[in-house]
Design brief:
Elements: H1 2-22, H2 53-73, E1 103-106, E2 110-117, E3 127-128, E4 131-132, E5 134-143, E6 148-159, E7 165-176, H3 185-195, E8 203-215, E9 220-233, E10 256-258, E11 261-263, E12 265-277, E13 288-299, E14 309-324, E15 327-341, E16 349-350, E17 364-365, E18 377-388, E19 404-415, H4 418-421, E20 439-447, E21 452-458, E22 467-471
Antiparallel strand pairs: 1-2, 2-5, 3-4, 5-6, 6-7, 7-8, 8-9, 9-12, 10-11, 12-13, 13-14, 14-15, 15-18, 16-17, 18-19, 19-20, 20-21, 21-22
């Protein structure tokens, strides 16, 4: 509890520091500003282009930032989406609200068509009723599978001379997923529509949320949000895909199981606290960088009623080392812990795309048909070595526009600890971990910024046939 209370205190101190420093910072390239078409300030659609030296310098600086981001994001279809920022280019708290794209296709929504102006974007030129730096955001769209409208509407204000503090709120009634970190949302639309492979699980989220986010000039971002929502189970509505026959779509699991029966709805109020170092993965030196992020989700914080009381902790470290021209070592370590009683859809599952690539999807942890297999602890390790032609710059990172080959090793572990379920300490039960319990997958891939193919083997059961993947995003 003492640790939890220290996080908002740190954020308040950090906010004060941002206010005190913002007036003295010189304007430079801003890695936090994304480029989704519908989320840019309205003034940008009407401003005349300027040929001043200052605008030219700013454009050149922004190009440099994008070039450095390009090394690490490899131009995945969800990272370079010019229509939306989505959860991949926004604050970690973004997905505490509904997070599906305004145009998508999956087994639950069928075809979904809408229009959206993104939340949590660091633009500050909109005005509302004569008040500067106030911007509206929201979504309106129709699900042809569910035969219903999804919508959200919100308002946010950027504070300070440099606009490094954001406060906002939103009311929503829309579909969402907790699986966005496994595989891209737009990527899933392609695999669902073309081949009938939908790798995410979905639910309906109706309620409201408020948030406070603070940032530094380049490397730090943190915030907290409060959400009070009703979560509802959704069922599969379509089996259609452009190519292929047969029923490839999985059952969409319910949000909870009450004994052997599915639970249709539940109410949860959560206070979420997030912090990130280098969330945009900027290069910290010529040939090395890392990113560190974490979030705590506190259910039933005493602000509103909740059917569940739990604390969910997630931490992630990603590291990138350019060890030779055209050679890059990429590594991700992700760890999670849940204290208290959490519903099924909040528990941990590993296996399949984006995690352990040779195992069945969500085969480790609580997932259908293993509805009685729960997991409140998780560790995941993904290591990749890429070899390709070096890019034409002094750093010599992989030129992702050309084809490259990769070797990878995935390792993972899940566990359910009775002691952790009744303890407020998130580290309780990790003494049960043994390296011999890890599941290992290994493989080889070939790809570019547009598409990549991977072949993965289960190293614990080598007699199994390898699993073939086609991806449109990097794994991490």
């Amino acid at each position: 509890m003492r640790t939890i209370l220290s996080i908002p205190i740190f954020l308040l101190c950090f906010t004060a520091s941002v206010f005190s420093q913002s007036s003295g910072d010189e304007e430079s390239e801003d890695p936090f500003k994304n480029d989704p078409f519908f989320s840019k300030p309205l003034q940008e659609f009407f401003q005349q282009s300027s040929s001043s030296a200052r605008d030219s310098d700013r454009d050149s600086a922004n190009t440099e930032v994008k070039r450095r981001l390009h090394y690490l994001h490899e131009k995945g279809i969800d990272y370079d989406d010019f229509l939306e920022a989505g959860p991949y280019n926004s604050n970690m708290l973004y997905s505490q609200h509904p997070n599906l794209p305004m145009i998508h296709y999956n087994r639950v929504s069928g075809l979904f068509l809408g229009i959206e102006k993104e939340r949590m974007q660091w633009y500050g030129d909109d005005w509302l009723l004569g008040i500067p730096s106030v911007q509206t955001h929201g979504l309106i769209g129709y699900s042809f599978g569910q035969k219903e409208w999804n919508y959200s509407i919100g308002l946010e204000k950027l504070l300070g001379r440099k606009k490094y503090v954001m406060i906002g709120g939103e009311y929503y009634n829309a579909m969402s997923t907790d699986d966005h970190w496994r595989v891209g949302l737009t990527e899933t639309t392609l695999t669902s529509m073309i081949g009938g492979y939908d790798f995410l699980d979905y639910y309906k989220q109706r309620g409201y949320g408020t948030y406070l986010i603070v940032r530094s000039q380049r490397l730090f971002e943190g915030g907290l949000s409060f959400n009070d929502a009703r979560y509802s189970s959704l069922t599969r509505q379509t089996n259609w895909a452009l190519f292929g026959s047969g029923d490839r779509y999985r059952v969409n699991p319910p949000v909870e199981h009450l004994g052997d029966q599915p639970g249709d709805t539940l109410n949860i109020s959560t206070l979420s606290i997030a912090a990130s170092f280098n969330p945009k993965r900027l290069l910290l030196s010529k040939h090395f960088t890392f990113s560190l992020s974490g979030m705590v989700e506190i259910a039933d914080p005493g602000i509103s009623g909740s059917d569940y009381a739990y604390n969910k902790y997630i931490g992630e470290l990603t590291t990138f080392i350019n060890f030779e021209p055209g050679g890059v070592l990429r590594y991700r370590f992700r760890i999670g812990s849940i204290t208290g009683d959490a519903p099924n859809f909040k528990e941990f599952q590993l296996g399949g795309v984006g995690t352990l690539r040779a195992l069945p999807y969500k085969s480790l942890g609580g997932s259908l048909p293993n509805i009685n297999h729960h997991a409140n602890q998780m560790m995941l390790s993904n290591a990749e070595i890429q070899f390709g032609s070096p890019s034409f710059n002094p750093e010599n990172w992989v030129d992702a526009d050309d084809f490259y080959i990769s070797l990878f090793l995935d390792s993972g572990w899940t566990n359910y600890s009775e002691d952790l379920a009744s303890s407020p300490n998130p580290f309780t039960g990790f003494d049960q971990f043994d390296f011999g319990d890890l599941k290992h997958n290994g493989g080889i891939g070939v790809g570019s910024s547009l598409i990549r193919c991977e072949l993965a083997w289960d190293l614990n059961e080598t007699s199994r046939a390898p699993v073939f993947w086609i991806r449109f995003n990097p794994t991490f």
